Amino acid sequence: MTKLPSFDPQTLPVIGRDGALPAVAPERLTAGALRARFLEPLAWEPELRAERQGFDRAPARASVLIPLVLHEAGTTVLLTRRTDHLRDHAGQISFPGGRAEDSDEDAAATALREAEEEVGLASEHVEVIGHLPEYTTITQFIVTPVVALVRPGFTLKPDPFEVDEVFEVPLAFLMNPAHHERRGLLLQGVQREFFSMPYAGRDAQGRAQTFFIWGATAAMLRNFYRFLAA
């Protein structure tokens, strides 16, 4: 596959929701509890590791930052909407991140560098607390999700070439499987399923807007749920 077939994921049927699974308890979403969870040797398995039918190109290493912003009213996840002209995952909601460079010391260094380049999130506000298992996207990026706590008080400067919008979603919303939709489609003769997590929020001007989180971003959030719920 050299190009992803065009389709609107929001129009695809919802196969099911996982409301029978328990939400992660609020006390496990605090800064102290999140730090402690990465130090616990609990056995768990990621639910999703890769997307099928990848592009015909060499795999590349990448990292994303899962920025957990520690507001007094509750922890949120900082996300971006990619601009429509980008080569990969154009217009989709994603974490700050990108391809690893030879100068990066490790996956965390890639994620921190990319977050500063994409949205202007200075590393002085960021505390890396751990990693989630790698996830391989349909575009053949082998992605390491780097989880970090972010202290409020930062000023963002999104790169207009890469980022159309920056917004935040409550972590509690994303860690509740009742908000995890499973959707399906037949793509090139293969039945595919993916998670989506539509969030009714507001844009930078305060107008009501639904942010449709799906694909690799939703998959990594689903794995984060499994990790915290273990």
Short description:
The protein has four helices and twelve strands, in the order βαββββαββββαβββα. The chain is α+β, with helices and mostly antiparallel strands.
Please write the CATH class name. Answer: Alpha Beta
Name the CATH architecture: Alpha-Beta Complex
Structural class of the secondary structure composition? alpha+beta
- Residue stretches low in confidence (pLDDT < 50, at least 5 long) are none
Round the mean pLDDT to the nearest integer and report it. 91
Q: Kindly, what is the distance between the CA atoms of the first and last residues, rounded to a whole number of angstroms?
A: 36 Å
Share of helix, binned: 10-25%
Strand content is 35-45%
- How many individual domains? 1
Q: How can the largest sheet be summarized?
A: 8 strands, mixed
User: Any idea of the CATH topology?
Assistant: Nucleoside Triphosphate Pyrophosphohydrolase
What labels would you give this structure?
230 residues; alpha+beta; Nucleoside Triphosphate Pyrophosphohydrolase; 4-stranded antiparallel β-sheet; 36% strand; globular
What can you tell me about this protein's structure?
- Strands 2, 3, 4, 5, 6, 7, 8 and 9 form an 8-stranded mixed β-sheet that branches. Strands 1-10-11-12 form a 4-stranded antiparallel β-sheet.
- The protein has one domain: Alpha-Beta Complex (Nucleoside Triphosphate Pyrophosphohydrolase).
- The chain is 18% helix and 36% strand.
- The protein is an alpha+beta fold and 230 residues long.
- A hairpin with a 2-residue loop joins strand 10 and strand 11.
- 30% of the residues are buried.
- The protein is built from 4 helices and 12 strands, in the order βαββββαββββαβββα.
- The termini are far apart.
